[in-house]
């Protein structure tokens, strides 16, 4: 089976809280390969591309503001079925309900309505992964 690649982001809350290393440790323990990794402070144009599918939703503007609040760590990650596998490691979108054992379940705080502060992003399909990798690793 061909090795897949996905885009992982450690979002601004993860970087600011000093959780990048803990998150990377889980990724590496799972056996995924770090192909490329960089600290990025995305501008609005990059985020509009990245989150195009969410344009117009109620959480869109708060999400973009949050994503511009500090640097993120962008990771090109490779592995067998890594797209689905990383999303499984991350847990469900809302950290208040994400299962224990997942990144969001173990480290995500209860921020009330601030669901956007959920520590990580992972591409959700091969098409999304290709599109998002080209945005963050242009
Ligand atoms: P991600 O894209 O970050 O890996 O997370 P996801 O697939 O689980 O979530 P998605 O539906 O793609 O939403 C993207 C990000 O938008 C924020 N969000 N806020 N109701 C809300 O306030 C809400 N819903 C989504 C989260 O930061 C989510 O990760
Ligand atoms: Mg998503």
Question: Explain this structure to me?
Answer:
The protein has 138 residues and is α+β, with helices and mostly antiparallel strands. The protein has a single domain, classed as Alpha-Beta Plaits (2-Layer Sandwich). Helices cover 40% and strands 19% of the residues. It starts with a strand and ends with a helix. Ribavirin triphosphate binds next to strand 4.
For the largest beta-sheet, the strand count, sense and barrel status come to: 4 strands, antiparallel
Bound molecules: ribavirin triphosphate, magnesium ion
Helix/strand order: EHHEHHEHHEH
Number of strands: 4
Number of domains: 1
Given the C-alpha coordinates, what overall shape results? globular
CATH class: Alpha Beta
Q: Could you list the spans in which at least 5 consecutive residues all have pLDDT below 50?
A: none
Name given to the CATH homologous superfamily:
Nucleoside diphosphate kinase-like domain
CATH arch. level architecture: 2-Layer Sandwich
- The separation of the N and C termini measures 26 Å
Q: What is the helix tally?
A: 7
Give the amount of beta strand, in percent.
Answer: 15-25%
Domain Nucleoside diphosphate kinase-like: 3-138
Cofactor: Mg(2+)
Active site: 121 (pros-phosphohistidine intermediate)
Family: Belongs to the NDK family.
TL;DR?
The chain is α+β, with helices and mostly antiparallel strands. It has 7 helices and 4 strands; from the N terminus they run βααβααβααβα. The chain has helices spanning 12-16, 20-29, 44-50, 60-67, 82-90, 103-107, 126-136; strands at residues 4-10, 33-40, 72-79, 120-122.
């Amino acid at each position: 089976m061909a090795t897949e690649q996905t885009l992982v982001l450690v979002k601004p809350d993860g970087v600011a809280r000093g959780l990048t290393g803990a998150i990377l440790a889980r990724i590496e323990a799972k056996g995924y390969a770090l192909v490329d990794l960089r600290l990025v402070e995305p501008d609005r144009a990059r985020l509009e591309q990245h989150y195009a599918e969410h344009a117009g939703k109620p959480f869109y503007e708060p999400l973009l503001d949050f994503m511009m609040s500090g640097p993120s760590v962008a990771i090109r990650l490779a592995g067998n079925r890594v797209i689905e596998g990383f999303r499984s490691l991350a847990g469900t979108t809302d950290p208040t309900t994400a299962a224990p054992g997942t990144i969001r379940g173990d480290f995500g705080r209860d921020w009330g309505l601030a669901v956007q502060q959920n520590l990580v992003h992972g591409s959700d399909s091969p098409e999304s992964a290709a599109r998002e990798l080209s945005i963050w690793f242009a």
